[in-house]
């Protein structure tokens, strides 16, 4: 089967059939070639329905998880987005297609540098990169219209929530080390949090000041 056929099948069988309807998102997932973001030896598995190892004990998320988190963000094209956990850079590319500006932070420098190289090669010029602890956010660039955290937090990261604009949306897996609940948090006019649950999930831990300890 050709690469194009595998992408078409991924979108149809893994995304549309599970209820993803945002057409801009589906188009972005058809356009961005996931095999460019995985290790060479895993290229044949790039369009499979699962996460893959990317080195340093980290993973590229399952395509459906990338899609559902992005759909929850409800992007229209004008948003400033911060992503915590660049990983492979695949999710970053989707965000760069659908929003206005993306600020992405990764704590592991080899991953950040690899992702940055791929994304620059693909000509994305609306992404800023940073190595560091994303749980403290990126104060100089705040406020953000959207926040996406692609690693599992023990609770809602408050320092990041403080950098969310009024009416802004944050998506984050919250819970135990080996089982989390995908949460959507909206910042209300009065600054309060409106928290909604969007189902179970499993992510690698968010490690940092407002996350898990590195052990
Ligand atoms: N969305 C990514 C992709 O599609 O490739 C997957 C990211 S992976 C599931 C989670 C990433 O979060 C890992 O690369 C990990 O190193 C990173 N991470 C964990 N804690 C972090 C923190 N405090 N700040 C920044 N990145 C962090």
Give a quick summary of the entry.
With 215 residues, the protein is α/β, with parallel strands linked by helices. It is 27% helix and 28% strand. The structure holds S-adenosylmethionine.
Model description:
The protein has a single domain, classed as Vaccinia Virus protein VP39 (Rossmann fold, 3-Layer(aba) Sandwich), CATH 3.40.50. Helix content is 27%, strand content 28%. It contains six helices and nine strands. β7 and β8 form a beta hairpin. It is globular and about 50 Å long. The relative contact order is 0.13. It binds S-adenosylmethionine. S-adenosylmethionine (SAM) binds next to β2, α4 and β4.
Order of helices and strands: HHEEHEHEHEEHEEE
CATH superfamily: Vaccinia Virus protein VP39
Portion in helices: 25-40%
Which percent range describes the beta-strand content?
25-35%
List cofactors, ions and other ligands: S-adenosylmethionine
Quaternary structure annotation: single chain
Largest beta sheet, briefly?
Answer: 7 strands, mixed
Question: What is the CATH level 1 assignment?
Answer: Alpha Beta
- Shape category: globular
Number of domains: 1
Query: Distance N terminus to C terminus?
Result: 43 Å
Give me the number of helical elements. 6
Under CATH, the topology can be stated as: Rossmann fold
Side by side, the strands of the main sheet go 5-4-3-6-7-8-9
Instruction: Give the beta-strand count.
Output: 9
Content-based structural category = alpha/beta
Annotated CATH architecture: 3-Layer(aba) Sandwich
